[in-house]
Amino acid sequence: MTEEGENVADELNQTLLVFEKDLNEAELQTLFFEKDDELAAILTIHPGAGGTESQDWAEMLLRMYLRYAERKGYKTEILDFLPGEEAGLKSVTVRVEGDYVYGHLSLESGVHRLVRISPFDANKRRHTSFAAVFVYPEIEKEIEIEIDPDDLRIDTFRSSGRGGQHVNVTDSAVRITHLPTGIVVQCQNERSQHKNKATAMKVLRARLYELEKKKKLEKLEKLEDAKSEIAWGNQIRSYVLHPYKMIKDLRTDVEMGNVERVLDGDIDEFIEASLFLRKNEKEKR
Question: In terms of pTM, does the model score above 0.85?
């Protein structure tokens, strides 16, 4: 092949790569058909029973999602962080902002299961840990969610955990309980009690909106078809680090052996498979 022919072939290959990339991006865009998909997201993580083991696993999941957000160019803000007694965390709430963030993360809600040799067990026994991830859309201001002040119990307390040494001089942290639903949200990220209250109210609005959306779905369709229950026995993904290494999504059957890469935030393959599954289920209705 002549030098000119090689140049033409290189240009064609580059054009083909660009076309394939644009085609893949266009195909992915068709997966975002729900009204809330384009919104920012509120992500919370709670460890299951098991003390330090599950609390450490919850913090591993937090790191995974923060690294995923970093890879995608999303902006993250930890709104509330309650550290574990020895390691890990007892609960965390994170705001994630970017293009179609809720659409990408919404199907991560559910129970995540870890199997590994415990770093906290002197006998090096294998342990199974659970943690629950919940993702809610952050509701824009123009979407009205009425909240009766009489339905709220507002408590203040001193901040703890990350940044606590800077903000716990006064009772700046805020916890809000919505009495009719029992939903509890809190924020201790800012030094200002006013700012923490405003942020906690934003999280509460998102939780109430999600609750109302589920109620509407239940009225339109049978519960079995409209709602995927999140319970400790309903794992969506298993992360096995021992006796072999494998991460498997139990809904899509997607498997990956490179667990280090996944735990470092490379979860696009799992997310895209879940979105395709959602689209296929939508088309079957």
Answer: no
**Is residue 267 within a helix (H) or strand (E), and if so which, with residue range?**
none
Within a 10 A sphere around the Cβ of 204, how many other Cβ atoms?
A: 21
Mean per-residue pLDDT for 116-124? 85
Given the candidates 3.60.10.10, 3.40.50.2300, 3.30.160.20, 3.40.50.1580, the CATH classification of the domain at 149-218 is 3.30.160.20
As a residue count, the chain comes to: 285
Predicted pLDDT of residue 222: 42
Burial class (CB in 10 A: 0-12, 13-18, 19+), 64: buried
Tokens 């003390």 belong to residue: 51
Judged by DSSP in three states, 86 sits in coil
Longest CA–CA span in the chain (Å) reads 81
Where exactly does CATH 3.30.160.20 map onto the chain? Answer: 149-218
